[in-house]
Amino acid sequence: MSDPIEVYLNSGQAxxxxxxxxxxxxxxxxxLRSIDGVVASRVAIExxxxxxxxxxxMSEDVCHFLELQYDPGVKIRLRSANKQVSESLGLxxxxxxxxxxxxxxxxxxxxxxVAYDIxxxxxxxxxxxxxxxxFQNKDQTVTIHNPNTGxxxxxxxxxxxxxxxxxxxxxxxxx
Length: 175
Fold this sequence. Notes:
alpha+beta; Cathepsin D, subunit A, domain 1; 6-stranded mixed β-barrel; 5 helices
């Protein structure tokens, strides 16, 4: 039996429809997207949207800067995208993070030496019933729902790193 794709390509019909100059194609990569969250009513922190993560996590530096408490008895093993395995430092429970006018209470794993400030994984998506909308001009919005109030909010995202928490900010804030 012939391969239907091969038959189609050899029929000449594909060539008539294929004009490389007229095609819209995907870029080879795009930056990850972030939103700002005001944590514990203190400061806006970049929150990386990562639906591939099974947890919500925060860097140890940000946690200590915000003076958040966490339970060191609740640790999990985390496998990063590059396959490295590390253990979390503990779990901060019911951390208030305000996105626009909406405050959510999140369970946040504290992690040492990570390349993000806050990582919003699947628990965030499930809690907020988030809907991500992408546009060809590279813009993106995320619509979130507050299960406690019933309110919804559309938040524009920005490329990762646009507003990154820095250790220098800690030093300036403590002066």
